[in-house]
Amino acid sequence: MKSAVYTKAGQVGLASIERPQIIEADDAIIRIVRTCVCGSDLWSYRNPEIEEGHRNSGHEAIGIVEEVGENVTTVKSGDFVIVPFTHGCGECDACRAGYDGTCDRHIGNNWSDGVQAEYIRFHYANWALIKIPGQPSDYTEGMLKSLLTLADVMPTGYHAARVANVQKGDKVVVIGDGAVGQCAVIAAKMRGASQIILMSRHEDRQKMALESGATAVVAERGQEGIAKVREILGGGADAALECVGTEAAIDQALGVLHNGGRLGFVGVPHYNNRALGSTFAQNISVAGGSASVTTYDKQFLLKAVLDGDINPGRVFTSSYKLEDIDQAYKDMDERKTIKSMIVMD
Ligand SMILES: [Zn+2]
Ligand SMILES: [Zn+2]
């Protein structure tokens, strides 16, 4: 079968690899219907030390269950499913508390990879997979795009709002105008925020966020950006949702909050020098991590998409065939598209 592999920094190609097999009793083999490139994949893509033939870090998909292990009873061959980037067991303390993105049964993270391929092996399939009613042919392309966001970016945007405890009437600032930031705007609106400011310098992304519920956009960065936010809100924000993963983005988030405000961070951190003590003087609550994809999808996000209440699929502004995966990465890296979707045959 065909699978995307990193060939060198800034280049992705296709390799022929063995089709995956069931290994554990809780595995499923999934035939991929739609997959995509994540902002986090671009870190590997740009890495000058990437080895030729390195497995792709793709981790978001919707697909058809081909085969299941003997312990899998919740889905069967032929079912259409959301393939989350996480593999919660559904039974441990973390999963039961609604933090399946950091399931206690996994050492380190529990993320998928290698999903930019024709087939994948998915472990902890019995609880983590989310069944979608019907078959892909029952849905419009727009709806398939929204269903695909439920594998990562929509639950991740929602997670930022949940861990920052966004409440009805809150003033919220979203840092990051990529797919996750756009979904965080949708999530803040779902939770009843009264004002939502997106920090963005790109007109197309500003427009998309304003259509999804943002009430203002701020293009300025640093101290200037903080001052602008405070001017619009008449003070600091109740919650800041950080969807980038850089130290500058964390600084921006901390800077826009009023004392006692809440920071939710979901950008995969590419820094490790942020001292917790720096938030003491402001009484800032800080929480963040990997999203609870299965919990949110099962509880309300799948329903919100199917009912047409939210339309996160708009973040996919370009579609490609698997053969054109290199272009899909390139266009996203050069910000020609917000998020690249891969349509499988
Ligand atoms: Zn992702
Ligand atoms: Zn668990």
From TrEMBL:
Signal peptide: none
Domain Alcohol dehydrogenase-like C-terminal per the UniProt entry, residue ranges: 179-288
Keyword Metal-binding attributed: yes
Matching InterPro entries: ADH-like_C, ADH-like_N, ADH_Zn_CS, GroES-like_sf, NAD(P)-bd_dom_sf
Superkingdom, taxonomy of origin: Bacteria
Keywords: Metal-binding, Oxidoreductase, Zinc
Alphabetical list of SUPFAM superfamilies matching this protein: GroES-like (SSF50129), NAD(P)-binding Rossmann-fold domains (SSF51735)
Ranges of residues in domain Alcohol dehydrogenase-like N-terminal: 25-133
Bilayer-spanning residue ranges: none
Cofactor dependency: Zn(2+)
GO molecular function: oxidoreductase activity; zinc ion binding
Family affiliation: Belongs to the zinc-containing alcohol dehydrogenase family.
Official protein name in the record: Zn-dependent alcohol dehydrogenase
UniProt organism field: Streptococcus mitis
Taxonomic path: Bacteria, Bacillati, Bacillota, Bacilli, Lactobacillales
